[in-house]
Specification:
Oligomer: single chain
Distance between the termini: 45 Å
Number of helices: 4
Order of helices and strands: HEHHHEEEEEEEEEE
């Protein structure tokens, strides 16, 4: 009896090992994920936003120097002086919906359960974002190839920085999108930093959630904090709040 059990040990061990490998390699390929999307702004961020607005008004005045009737009051009356701080502070919280089934990916936003703006279908392999009018997924009104847009990324992975989101253990990945310097339009020269907590358990590319211009297919973020190098203290947040397989 004991000899039989001894002989069975290698078989049991091998079976457990195979089962563990199958379980660890399986990925979720179908489901719906909901994200909450909102802005956070610190006191320092409010000051930076106001300074940015003032610089825009100053630039507009410089560009229109040959029009003596155009002053800062006129420029602000055209909308440039809209209270930009309040615009960010009181921007409504949106819900981002991602529906996926193998290679089919849909993304759209809702506000108070009503669809807001276009519905997007995503060709992740080719980096194409297809625009569809809300309520009509069969009509394409526009296509954008994001992978044709310039921009280089630095990728920083920290497996030690972990966070549990919706019962899934995630690790930290930071994407830093570097822009070429543009002296005429400084905002176009700002680097964008994506601080993300990601998982490899969901078979989705980063493009399913964020309009990145390079393919990142090895992990998918369940939490993202986006900040611009030229606007410290202002952050856009995406956080997963529901996952339905």
């Amino acid at each position: 009896m004991s000899k039989t059990i001894f002989l069975l040990f290698p078989l049991i061990f091998a079976f457990c090992k195979v089962s563990k490998n199958v379980q660890s390699s399986s990925k979720l390929t179908k489901g719906t994920i909901l994200f909450t999307n909102y802005f956070e702004i610190t006191e320092n961020g409010e000051k930076n936003l106001q300074q940015f607005l003032d610089s825009l008004v100053s630039t507009a005045l410089t560009l229109s120097h040959d029009n003596p009737d155009l002053d800062s009051a006129h420029i602000k009356s055209y909308g440039l002086g809209y209270p930009i701080v309040e615009q960010f502070k009181y921007k409504p919280t949106l819900t981002v919906h991602i529906e996926f089934d193998e290679d089919t990916i849909w993304r759209y936003e809702t506000l108070d359960e009503a669809i807001r703006g276009n519905i997007f279908s995503i060709d992740a392999e080719n980096g194409i974002l297809n625009y569809h009018p809300k309520g009509d997924r069969h009509t394409t009104v526009r296509k954008v190839n994001l992978f044709e847009i310039a921009g280089e990324y630095e990728v920083i992975i920290d497996y030690q920085d972990k966070k549990n989101i919706l019962g899934i253990e995630c690790y930290k990945v930071t994407l830093k999108k570097k822009e070429e310097i543009d002296d005429e339009i400084p905002i176009d020269s700002w680097d964008t930093l994506y601080e993300m907590y990601v998982t490899e358990a969901i078979d989705l590319p980063v493009l399913a959630l964020l309009n990145v211009t390079k393919p990142f297919n090895d992990f998918f973020p369940l939490e993202v904090k986006i900040k611009e190098s030229g606007m410290p203290g202002v952050y856009e947040i995406f956080r997963a709040i529901e996952l339905t397989p």
